[in-house]
Prior knowledge:
- By secondary structure, this protein is mainly alpha-helical.
- Helices cover 53% and strands 6% of the residues.
- The chain is globular.
- The termini are far apart.
- One 2-acetamido-2-deoxy-beta-D-glucopyranose (NAG) binds at residues 156, 161-163, 248.
Amino acid sequence: MESFKPLALLLLFLLPITTVTGWGVDGHFTxxxxxQGRLTQAAADxxxxxxxxxxEGDLASLxxxxxxxxxxYHWSSPLHxxxxxxxxxxxxxxxDCKDEDGTMGRCVAGAIKNYTTQLQDYGKQTSQYNLTEALxxxxxxxxxxxxxxxxxxxxxxxxxxxxxHWFTRKAVLHHVWDDSIIETAEERFYxxxxxxxxxxxxxxxxxxxxxxxxxxxxxxxxxxTCPNIYxxxxxxxxxxxxxxxxGNDSVLGDDYFLSRLxxxxxxxxxxxxxxxxxxxxxxx
Length: 284
Ligand SMILES: *[C@@H]1O[C@H](CO)[C@@H](O)[C@H](O)[C@H]1NC(C)=O
Ligand SMILES: *[C@@H]1O[C@H](CO)[C@@H](O)[C@H](O)[C@H]1NC(C)=O
Ligand SMILES: *[C@@H]1O[C@H](CO)[C@@H](O)[C@H](O)[C@H]1NC(C)=O
Ligand SMILES: *[C@@H]1O[C@H](CO)[C@@H](O)[C@H](O)[C@H]1NC(C)=O
C-alpha cells in the first residue's frame, strides 16, 4: 500500500480541475467565513477547540479539507453529491441518497446527518469518532449541497460530462458552477478579492435578505439540520438555472453569467447561514 502513496499524490496534481469537487476553494471559503461570523459563543468555542492548532481558529482556511482527503479517504468521495434520476428534477432521500453500489445513506444529505449526529457527542465522554474530522466534513458538505449541480442528474454526473465554453475557454458545466461564475464575478466586480465578495454577500444577508434568512435557518420538527430541504432546492436550481438552455458545446457568456450569478450568491449565503445554524444547534 505504502508504495502507492506517491502515485496517488502525483495523480492528485495531474487531475484536471474539472473532476467533481463541489464549490471550488473560494466558494467553500465563502460559506465557512459567513458561517463563522454567525456562531454563538458556545459554538465558536467548540469550533476553536476542535480546529487543529495550525488553523489558528479560522474554519474557512480548512473548509476545502474534505476535497484534499478524497484520495486518502476514498470512501468519502460519494459523500460530496447526490445523483438524481435524469430530467425528473426531483429529489427523494430514500430513492436517491445512495452511492454507486446502492448503499443507502451514502450521499451528501446522509453525510450531513452523519456528521451532525457525531458532533452531538461533543463534550460528552469520549466519542468513537474524530470530531475534528466531523467538523471539517460537515462544514464542507453543507457548502456542497448548496452548489446546485451537486444535486444533479445521474448520466451527466452533475454536469461533469457537459462540455461548454465559458466565454472563450473550454470547461465542463459542473466546473462553471464550482468555480467559473464565482471567479468571473470576483474579477469583474470585486477586485479579484474573495473577501470583498464575502462582504457584499454579508451585507445582503443583514439587509436585503434579512426576512429570508430567518426562514433559511429553520427546520421543521426541531431538527438541527434539514439536508433534504437543501437538496430539493438544489435540484430545482439545477433544472431552472444550471442546466436550463445548456447542451454540449453551448457557449456561455454574459447572458448566462449575469442571470446565474444572483443564484450563486444566494446559494453561498444560504450555505453559510445554514452551516452556522447547524453548528449553533449542535453546540447549544
Ligand atoms: C459517517 O462517518 C464515518 C466516520 O467518518 C464514516 O466512516 C462513514 O462512511 C460516514 N457515513 C456517511 C453516510 O457519511
Ligand atoms: C483527527 O483528525 C485530524 C485530521 O485528520 C488528525 O490530524 C488528528 O490527528 C486526528 N485525531 C486523532 C485523535 O486521531
Ligand atoms: C457530451 O459530449 C461528450 C463527448 O462527446 C459525451 O461523452 C457526453 O456524453 C455528452 N454529454 C451529453 C449530456 O450529451
Ligand atoms: C445584493 O443585493 C442587491 C439587491 O438585490 C443585488 O443587486 C446585488 O447583486 C446583491 N449582491 C450580492 C453579492 O449578492
